[in-house]
Design a protein that fits this description.
Blueprint: H1 2-30, H2 32-60, H3 68-96, H4 101-115, H5 120-137, H6 140-149, H7 152-166, H8 176-182
Helix pairs in contact: 1-2, 1-3, 2-3, 2-7, 3-6, 3-7, 4-5
């Protein structure tokens, strides 16, 4: 399983990194709503390699048979490798090329809350929560954890679906008793 996981995890990781870099270049041009959709679409495209990785492992290593648990293990390992690439790419881009990106993001979130028609107490509470998140995001470990949690649910969902679709049990061999009964 190690070879399959590494092969498909590395391919998926490079794919998600390159696509994320392209998305960040387009983010200001297409707007935040479209950028969000494009970002999750590229995650799904990258995580499709989970399906192909599990299928390759099942067909090439396990003679066409795989349990749900083993398929899930293969898929989640590919997911984790891909998520590590995603986090590494974000850290490189964020700290080297876009250090004020999150400041702009949090400012836009605060403006959105303040522009809504909420009562003053609710508005103040939501703004305070956004400001706490902004302070937490300055910690590199929290920053990495937040970033890791972005693609993980997508990868987990695709892993579950792929493991369910690709599981295949060994064919049941007819026993001597059932062979006698059928004649």
């Amino acid at each position: 399983m190690k070879k399959t996981v590494l092969t498909f995890g590395l391919i998926s990781g490079v794919m998600i990194s390159v696509l994320m870099g392209g998305n960040l270049l387009l983010a200001n041009k297409i707007g935040s709503g479209h950028s969000l959709v494009l970002g999750y679409t590229t995650m799904v495209a990258s995580f499709l390699l989970i399906y192909f990785g599990i299928r390759s492992y099942r067909d090439n290593t396990l003679a066409g048979q795989i349990s749900f648990g083993r398929a899930f293990a293969c898929g989640i390992l590919i997911t984790l490798i891909t998520c590590v690439f995603y986090v590494a790419m974000w850290e490189i881009v964020y700290f080297n090329f876009m250090p004020h990106f999150m400041d702009s993001y949090f400012a836009a979130q605060i403006h959105k809350v303040q522009s809504s028609s909420l009562d003053p107490a609710t508005t103040a509470a939501r703004v305070a929560a956004i400001q706490r998140s902004q302070q937490l995001y300055q910690n590199p470990f929290v920053n990495m954890a937040y970033t890791f949690m972005e693609p993980l649910p997508v990868g987990l969902l695709i892993t579950l679906i792929s493991a369910a679709i690709l599981r295949r049990k060994a064919p049941v061999e007819p026993t001597a008793a059932s062979a006698v009964m059928s004649t």
